[in-house]
Model the fold of this input.
Amino acid sequence: MDQRTSIDPEEYKSILLMKLVVQEINKNPDFLPNITLGYHIFSTCSDPKKTLGYVTKVLSGEKEAPNYYCKGRGEVAGFIGDSHFHSSHVMAQLLSLYQYTQVSYRATDTRLRDGKLYPTLFHMTPDNRILYAAIIKFLQYFGWNWVGIILSNDGSSDEESQELSKILNQHGICVDYIFKLKPDIVHDTEGLIKIWKSKAKVIIACETFASQFYYFSQLMPFTLENITFIFPPPWSKLPTYKFEDLTAINCSFIFLWAQRINVQFENPEYGISFSRCHTDPILEDIWIRLFSCLSPNPLKNYFFNLFYNISAKPCRGVKYWKAFDGYTTLPFYAYRAVYVLANALHWMYMKKNKSEQNGFQHRLHKYMRNVHYVESTGVKIYFNERREVATDLSLESWVFANSTYYLYYIITIIRPGFVPEMFTNLSNPIFWKKGKIPVSRCSDPCLPGSRKKFGSSIHKCCYECVPCPEGEISNISDSENCMKCPDEEWPNEKKDCCVPKLMEFLSYTDDTIVAVFLAVSILCCLLTGFILGIFIHYQDTPIVKANNRNLSYLLLVSIMLSFLCVFLFFGHPVDVTCMLRVTSFGVIFSVAVSSLLAKSIMVCIAFKATKPGSPWRKWMGAKLPNAIICVFSLVQVKICVTWMSISPPFQDRDTHTYQGKIIIQCNEGSVIGFYSVLGYMGLLAAASFIIAFLARTLPDSFNEAKYITFSMLVFCSVWIAMIPAYLSTRGKYMVAVEVFAIVASSSGLLGCIFFPKCYIILIRPDLNTKTIIR
Done:
């Protein structure tokens, strides 16, 4: 250890542990028999130049300068270190060239895992991929997507911070700023203001520990009291710094490589004697740093007072430093590194191949690759394909009671290949500053039912929330896109889930208009039946006999059926009712209009047949009107049968016309068939109207042709007015228009043809005589 190095108790613990394990191995007669392990220990200060210098010095065999030197020259078996990327990188390049084995006990940079570039480099811990994955899951669990990054100013973490930012961004987490902890941090006003104004309430520290964090925390006490820090394993040394105010790092989280060991050192209390400070200058620095003990060196006292604000005093009560009592993890991997290297060396010597024992340094890495043993703790030690020992990662929380006493809580253990999804035991307020989980987001989360709308910001974490458009939903928070509901579903009011669309049809139970139509149809049907009864009762009277009473009976039955056929238009449509709807009223109306046409023709023939010797007499009688009705009605029946055979109507579900509704309707199947039925019915009505209109002037006290003309005028007017109304409506209103046309036209026929006759039969029986009728 270079005497000029900065004080680092954790590194000093690593030295003590490496010394301890070497002593244990040398005392074991069954392990490396007849071989004594020695060591050189140097502090590189994470400086690549110093690293190369010390490695060259060890390889060249020069004897100057090391603090710890094994007397009696021996061969160099391998190298352990370094703890940082840049120094480990240059060491690995040089040692790979000469095929010397190197064991890194702390460096976790992924760039050092290239087996082709560094074939002799082995690692005691996995690389940063597991750490990054755990950090991402941790951030995502609490919905944090807006964070800051702090790192040392020495350049050791620059590339790592860029890699971390890239990985975070790939998982939807944005980095607001990357802040370097400089020695003159007080002059970095712009950076400090950026942190103060930022919405990022979570700060992630990069791998390399930055001693300037102490000054950083003192400069911004009010800002950092709302900040939650996430520290990587090398920052476990942070609590060893004697902070005056630990508010900044209270309720912080740290990821650590999980294994620990119990170490006995010098005495039953596992402590290091204060008396050793007089022979160990590094230990003396640590003693001053931890216990404020006065040093015999006044310059050293002045230095600690100036840089650490420590007023040293004579120490008489402190006898032992319990260096390994409780919380220590990183030094253990230096301890393990010595054991792994020694095990590989042991197995190589157990081969008893004399030819391999000369120049063994260049073959040792082959045995390292196959190291496999079980520690006293029960942990299996072996190297995976990336030349690293698989190790559990633990998430722990620091909770500080005061400036010298703190507690740590193990939150979860993250095993290789498995990153936990849940951190449910963090709901306790003790883990959070002010007892409340912070919010670290650039924008508030978009609730279900809305989506992100990105503006001019370069960060995708900064956005506005806009409601989903009609017909679309989002059922998760912070959705970037809304999704359409299936055809038969529609968003609910909050637009966070799809619900079945309303089924729209003329329902017997839900639509008032159906009740009105039903009441009118039934009343009209009963009225028609009543009129039919009157006509049957008064069948022998002149007014009933006039113009073929059988045609009147047939017309009344047709009108009665037309009122009843509207029942087919109500309720949930099915294929059968869809086929019966148009065909039933088409055929029924064709029979009714054919009856009127026969009546009109018979009126004309009757007056022409009154002339002596008229040839029209032979057409008088029941055969002609019956033939007219049968022929013209059968034409409509044939049209309907052809329609039903080729492309019949069927039930259809219209999901597009109205938002939020499914129109259950009847699809005509063949539009030509539908309009052929209506067109033929209109053709019959027009012919009946024309003939009746021509016969209206014939002399008669009761000229039925006038009433037929008027009834056909009403009939045609209703259906002509229905066509534009029918085409301009959709859904159940289209059906309502059709029903209205049927009821109105049937009522027109009933009223215009039969009401005048009923008036005479019931009110003016004096007019119901042969003399008056003739």
Summary: The chain has a mean pLDDT of 81. Residues 575-608 form the longest helix (34 residues). The chain is about 45% helix and 15% strand. The first strand starts at residue 78 and ends at 80.
